[in-house]
Amino acid sequence: MKNQAVTERDDANRTAHDDRARPMTRRSALRLGLGGLAAAPWLAAPRGALGAVLGPASRNPFPQDDEIVLGVSAAFNGPSRGLGIELYRGAQAYFTHVNDAGGVNGRKIVLKIYDDGYQPDPSIQNTVQLMIEDQVFLLFGYVGTPTVTRVLPLLKKFQDENVYLFFPFTGAQPQREPPYGDFAFNLRASYRQETEGLVNNFVRIGRRRIAVFYQADAYGRSGWAGVRRALAAQGGQIAGEATYRRGERFTGTMRPQVEILQATSPDAVICVGAYAACAAFARDAVDLGLRVPIANLSFVGSENLLQLLSEGREDAPRYTRLLVNSQVVPSYEDDSIPAVRQYRDFMARYDPAVPEEIVEDPYTPFAHSFVSLEGFLNAKLLVEILNRLGDSPRRAGLEEAVFSVKDYDLGVGERVSFGPDRRQGLQRVYYTVVDEGRFVTLNDWEGRLA
Amino acid sequence: MKVRKLFQKTLFGVFSLFGLIVLSTSILCIYTVDKHLSEEYQSNSENIAKTIADSSVDILLNRDMSTLQSLIDQYRELQGIRYIYIVSEAGEPLAHTFVPGIPEEIQEEIRSSEVSAETLERTLPGIGDFVEVGSPILAGVAGTVRVGMDTDLVALKVQRAIGQQMYLICIILVIGVLASIWFVNLAAKPLGELLGFAVDLARQPDPARAKGRKVLERDDEAGQLARLFVHLAGSVETDQGRRPKASPGSAG
């Protein structure tokens, strides 16, 4: 897996990336990190072996005087790259606004990003790099369950250093529960909540035989467990299940999976996967005559999914008519929501660039997407927390700052609170369907899907 | 390479002995490597199953299926391990690594609560042949871990290991044979010289003419024989000189 890094300074946010943002190998990323150390006298104190970097003697007054560096490891390449890129763009829109206004208590927010391709091992390597070499203030905007679940033990390992993971793009349980829940803060609703909502709504309209199509990894299992749990609460069980390997592309076939589920005669299928595989499944399901509602979780990347199913197809509605996507943020089309208005304004004003230094193949971003809106909200809440750290922010004060967030109005119509027993900010789940080539809020389940 | 007749049988004997050694070593090697590697793979699989079973307890009790899946995914990446699945005590699959789904044969076993911790050989149509090992979780009251080891891959590994050993043995065989021929020829060379010398001496049994021949300077058995031949030739010549010549008139 090619790892690349880029630092984003506020003056480079809206312009072409400067020299610091050239494509780099892992080694050159390290050089940049060390270069940064040399340039910052307070970080340039003699250091021993790597293992001692995070030792008590090396603790330094994070963040730097003029910056707060956030470490990001996410999918910027591969079949799920749309998720990492969109999440990054949404967050960057807000950070750019904050930096233009003078930063957080005079400090600019800088993102140090690495690509993990949505694979666990590179994610671990990137996190070690971010924590030990780059010495970032906190970890932010990670993408995916299989990656995050493998990174969590690292946070526990370095728990004395108070390195926290903020707002990962996953609704899985491990970062919400012991033993690792203490090292992460979540904004979005969980997969458990999403699947419970989907199951309850399907059962309510008489669709009781629910099958699951899921990614054969921790993410898929998390969604599978959510469906199983929700069905058990309704006195039912999963009607059938089929899996696919992480990294499947839209060009691949999902016919075996469709045939497995078709044999179980489901009333609905809940997909727990990424957009490329889920789009392939929806396509093959329609082609093979499986005409039941196909639901996807928020992680899927709704716009990317829709794009794959619609691009170059005159009969696109045939493939999208029965799609139901759960979301953990409101519709970006709903201008009545203050945070959505702000998001649309900032996205239009700053139009965050795709980090081309790290994205290998051309990617055309969406003007708006659920994923970038989530990234935007993540950034907005993080800035609020960083503000609460005061003029001398330290990692050790992060948890207290987060727990001080009570009934905070993020602008989405749902107040955000955190506490020792509440490590997830938002609880609401939204449901959307495709109408006229875009996702709209689903208000009438019976009318649409019964 | 020409081998003297005298040594052909010896050389044949050496070749036969080498062949026998190679054959017996190969059979022993195949048996040992096959047995040890298979046992090692099976033992590793059993250890993995046990490790997963031991690690799963807290995770299962916390009902954290994604961590459970993450755990088995890590072991699934090990070479030779083709699939892993965990079945609850109630006979429900809790986590597995099958794509696109759990094979029907295993599903039936799970449904009929026939999943145990025993080792068994399994053929899954369209997938392959496996040795499946198991380990109970909390003595079986919390479920069972099953690990499938790809026997085709193990066989391939065994073949490769055997192939490498056979390759080495064959190299040793070729070197041994060539060395044997060389050594035999080394021994045959003075005999050839002795033979040539003896033939020359027989044609012209004059010890004086034989002086200076290299074979006479050898300090081995060939040299001793050559010198003995010269001595005998000298004796014969002396005897012939002493014997009275027959007069032409005495004949008849």
What's this model, at a glance?
The complex is a heterodimer of chains A (450) and B (252). Chain A is α/β, with parallel strands linked by helices and 450 residues long.
| Low-pLDDT residue intervals, each spanning 5 or more residues of chain B | none
Biggest interface reads: A-B, 27 and 17 residues
Q: Total strand count of chain A, please?
A: 15
User: What is the multimeric organization of the chains shown?
Assistant: heterodimer
Which percent bin holds the helix content of chain B?
55-70%
- Give average pLDDT of chain B, whole number: 85
Quick one: CATH class of the largest domain in chain A?
A: Alpha Beta
Biggest pleated sheet of chain B: 5 strands, antiparallel
Strand order, sheet with most strands of chain B: 2-1-5-4-3
CATH superfamily of the largest domain in chain B: PAS domain
**Structural category of chain B:** alpha+beta
Annotation, overall tally of beta strands of chain B: 5
Helix-strand pattern of chain A, N to C? EHHEHEHEHEEHEHEHEHEHHEHHHEEEEH
SS summary, helix count of chain B: 6
Shape of chain A: globular
Low-confidence stretches of chain A: 1-61
List the helices and strands and how they pair.
The complex is a heterodimer of chains A (450) and B (252).
Chain A: E1 5-8, H1 26-39, H2 50-53, E2 67-74, H3 81-100, E3 108-115, H4 120-133, E4 138-140, H5 145-157, E5 165-166, E6 184-185, H6 191-204, E7 210-215, H7 218-233, E8 240-244, H8 255-262, E9 268-272, H9 275-287, E10 294-296, H10 302-310, H11 316-320, E11 323-327, H12 338-350, H13 370-388, H14 398-403, E12 408-409, E13 415-416, E14 430-435, E15 438-441, H15 445-449
Parallel strand pairs in A: 2-3, 2-4, 4-5, 5-6, 7-8, 7-9, 9-10, 10-11
Antiparallel strand pairs in A: 1-3, 11-14, 12-13, 14-15
Helix pairs in contact in A: 3-12, 3-13, 4-5, 6-7, 9-10
Chain B: H1 5-61, H2 65-76, E1 81-87, E2 93-96, H3 104-111, E3 120-124, E4 128-137, E5 143-150, H4 151-203, H5 207-210, H6 221-242
Antiparallel strand pairs in B: 1-2, 1-5, 3-4, 4-5
Helix pairs in contact in B: 1-2, 1-4, 4-6
